[in-house]
């Protein structure tokens, strides 16, 4: 009988999907490392890349063997943003009915937004490990991740105004909530000023700056492994509730987590964790079942 995954058009959970613009590797137990992989084009995001990101994170959301993800870029840049040859073509052919063209373009933009929103919807924590330039759509992308680390050589640029458009795939919505400084976000978004690693740290865009790319990846994978060692019921419930509460009043968030935990507090992970603590063991010593 065909599996549910096959019926939905995706591979079996954990089964590899053929990727042309990304590289997916299992680096540690329960940890996946996803690389933007067009180094010759500085990982510029072409249309295939946007689609592969969407499909990859849909697979990861369903994959019970994955508990945390590190996202990085191959080569000398994290990403040069949208592939400029696609940006020009996005508006489609001139001519025809303006309402229908606008309708189709809106649909396209919503689809592109989903390629990043899928990371936020994925219950497994995603760590962005940024080295070198992170430009335009790259900032939108990392804004949808849960944790951001960078190397000393990283730079960030909300570049869209220089291309003649308002950023429309997440930066304007998420960045103010991340850095908590609307004046700074406005300045960056109006001027496309390049922000370097020390400022990214001081404003809260990233939570750690590492000396180089190798150390950055090592630390990001270590943190991912630490997350993956903990109860997936606890970690994934934490992410879902953090994301839910970010955009809502405290009272609504509290109600949501109460409803969430009325099921999740019945997990076997709690007595297992409590026993481990009593035995002076850590969560990494507890064999949590897949989720
Ligand atoms: C509905 C739409 C939603 C999305 C909107 C998104 C908007 C944006 O992302 S705006 C930002 C667009 N990006 C840029 O303006 C960055 C352009 N690139 C650069 O500034 C530099 O390439 C960079 C600083 C990233 C790296 O410089 P470096 O000297 O290391 O490399 P280059 O010699 O410049 O480039 C190497 C090859 O990569 C190609 N390339 C670089 N960026 C892009 C890009 N964004 N799109 C397509 N191709 C790119 C570059 O052409 C070189 O290719 P080749 O000549 O074949 O070697």
UniProtKB/TrEMBL annotation:
According to the UniProt record, one GO cellular component term is: mitochondrion
Question: Quick one: signal sequence residues?
Answer: none
- Location relative to the cell: Peroxisome
Pathway the protein contributes to: Lipid metabolism; fatty acid beta-oxidation
Q: Does the keyword Isomerase apply?
A: yes
Q: Which GO terms describe its molecular function?
A: delta(3,5)-delta(2,4)-dienoyl-CoA isomerase activity
* Catalyzed reaction equations: (3E,5Z)-octadienoyl-CoA = (2E,4E)-octadienoyl-CoA; (3E,5Z,8Z,11Z,14Z)-eicosapentaenoyl-CoA = (2E,4E,8Z,11Z,14Z)-eicosapentaenoyl-CoA
GO terms in the biological process aspect are: fatty acid metabolic process
Entry keywords, A to Z: Acetylation, Fatty acid metabolism, Isomerase, Lipid metabolism, Peroxisome
Q: Which domain of life is it from?
A: Eukaryota
Which Gene3D superfamilies is this protein grouped with? 2-enoyl-CoA Hydratase, Chain A, domain 1, Lyase 2-enoyl-coa Hydratase, Chain A, domain 2
Q: Which family does it belong to?
A: Belongs to the enoyl-CoA hydratase/isomerase family.
Q: Which PANTHER family match?
A: DELTA(3,5)-DELTA(2,4)-DIENOYL-COA ISOMERASE, MITOCHONDRIAL, ENOYL-COA HYDRATASE
The entry's function note states: Isomerization of 3-trans,5-cis-dienoyl-CoA to 2-trans,4-trans-dienoyl-CoA.
Q: What is this protein called?
A: Delta(3,5)-Delta(2,4)-dienoyl-CoA isomerase, mitochondrial
Q: Which organism is it from?
A: Corvus moneduloides
């Amino acid at each position: 009988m065909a599996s549910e995954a096959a019926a939905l058009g995706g591979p079996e959970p954990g089964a590899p999907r053929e990727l042309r613009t990304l590289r997916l590797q299992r680096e540690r137990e329960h940890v996946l490392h996803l690389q933007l992989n067009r180094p010759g084009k500085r990982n510029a995001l072409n249309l295939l890349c946007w689609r592969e990101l969407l499909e990859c994170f849909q697979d990861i959301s369903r994959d019970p063997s994955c508990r945390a993800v590190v996202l990085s870029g191959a080569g000398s840049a994290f990403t040069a943003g949208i592939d400029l040859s696609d940006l020009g073509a996005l508006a489609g052919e001139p001519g025809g009915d303006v309402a229908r063209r606008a309708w189709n373009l809106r649909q396209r933009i919503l689809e592109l937004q989903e390629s990043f929103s899928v990371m936020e919807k994925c219950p497994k924590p995603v760590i962005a490990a940024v080295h070198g330039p992170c430009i335009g759509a790259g900032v939108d992308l990392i804004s949808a991740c849960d944790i951001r680390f960078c190397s000393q050589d990283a730079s960030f640029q909300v570049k869209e105004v220089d291309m003649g458009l308002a950023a429309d795939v997440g930066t304007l919505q998420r960045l103010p909530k991340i850095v908590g400084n609307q004046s700074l976000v406005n300045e960056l978004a109006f001027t496309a000023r390049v922000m370097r690693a020390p400022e990214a740290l001081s404003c809260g865009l990233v939570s750690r700056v590492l000396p180089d790319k190798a150390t950055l990846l090592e630390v990001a994978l270590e943190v991912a492994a630490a997350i993956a060692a903990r109860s997936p019921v606890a970690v994934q419930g934490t992410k879902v509730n953090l994301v839910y509460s970010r955009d809502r009043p405290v009272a609504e968030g509290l109600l949501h987590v109460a409803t969430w935990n009325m099921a999740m507090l019945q997990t076997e992970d709690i007595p297992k964790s409590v026993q481990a603590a009593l035995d002076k063991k850590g969560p990494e010593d507890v064999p949590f079942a897949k989720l």
